[in-house]
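Researcher: Here's a chain I'd like modeled. Treat it as a single chain, no partners, no ligands.
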Amino acid sequence: MHHSIYTPANLTTFANLDQLGLTAIGQHLSTAKAEILCEVTSPDPWCRTCGEPGVPRDTITRRLAHEPFGWRPTVLVIKHRRYRCNHCRRVWREDLSRAVAPRQKISRAGLRWALVGLVCQHLSVSRIAEGLGVTWNTANEAVLAEGQRLLINDPARFDGVKVLGVDEHVWRHTKTGDKYVTVIVDLTSVRDGTGTARLLDMVQGRSKAVFKTWLAERDEQWKQGIEVVAMDGFTGFKTAAAEELPAAVEVLDPFHVVKLGSDALDKTRQRVQREQHGRRGRKDDPLYQCRRTLTVGLDLATEKQKDKLETLFATKTHEQVQLVWSVYQKMVDAYRQLKPEIGRWAMEQLIKAIGTKVPKGLPELKKLGGTLRRRKADILAYFDHVGSSNGPTEALNGRLEHLRGIALGFRNLAHYIARSLLETGGFRPRLHSES
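Model: Modeled as a single isolated chain. Structure tokens:
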């Protein structure tokens, strides 16, 4: 066995104290925590005022939470001297700026460990506080401040954005208070196939004014670089994008377009159910039994589901449901075409057909046709910019829901926005590369 790679045991190196400008001179281990006695590696006794050497006056002990080892809280007990200049009478302490930020209780290495745990390992603040051996408030305030300083406030994180996604998000599930925020997402990597979506910002409220104000705060060069804005059917987002990003293309993403079709199908089924039975559907009613099967794409349906639909449509009173169902299936089929130009043609023909040839007695299909006709340009734009979908934005919303579950809810919106940015802001590669 070769031993050339090994060096003598060194507590200073093991505890990552070199980068903090500290040297370990002792230790005390217990089942609850580990304490490492340290001193400043390179004392600087020279007076900053007159340049004369200072005289040691006394020694002060400072305790800092440090990154845990073996998940046992580790405390740095730092002995640093105070000096007094006999010439100008100035008193100062040894510099600990490499080890800890001003008025901080956690070492810089401990903060780094906590930030990586929060962003990369998705640890809860409670778990981080337990590892550091500090209170929840101390860990939360320190980690969020460090994440804000190191990651969120970095203006470079807005560089290279070409495709934007915008959507609303429910952050508070209470009866009082504003529970909505507008979520702005960078979809450039998704469009280019080089990565995943990342959260750019969250703004309180959901309206045209909220999104427009956020866009107005960006510089003109950045706005001119935006090529596509993917969004849902809310016209406020479209109007704001058109006014602030006139050169960008607005895209109504497939998820929300198909959702319009499935909503029309559900409302038609419910109306026919009430007209036939004078009540809502029950478990033995054919329409109610097929409520989920109706929304399955025909190319993905099993033989059992196809037989179920064939039996349902054999009844003459279900003709209206069948007609809206066929429109829904054509919408789905257009998006599943392998060639975008074929999908675009199919969707354009469908919009033209249901915009002008809707039979009487189908208010749901008439409303759907009117909506598709008004947003025709945004719907067809997707086929010219394949990959510019708001689907990843919806996926980020799901991750934020999971974050709220881990934290058991948030009461402070500023904290929620900061945690959301650290969770889904795309900072993991940066932290890994700096490790």
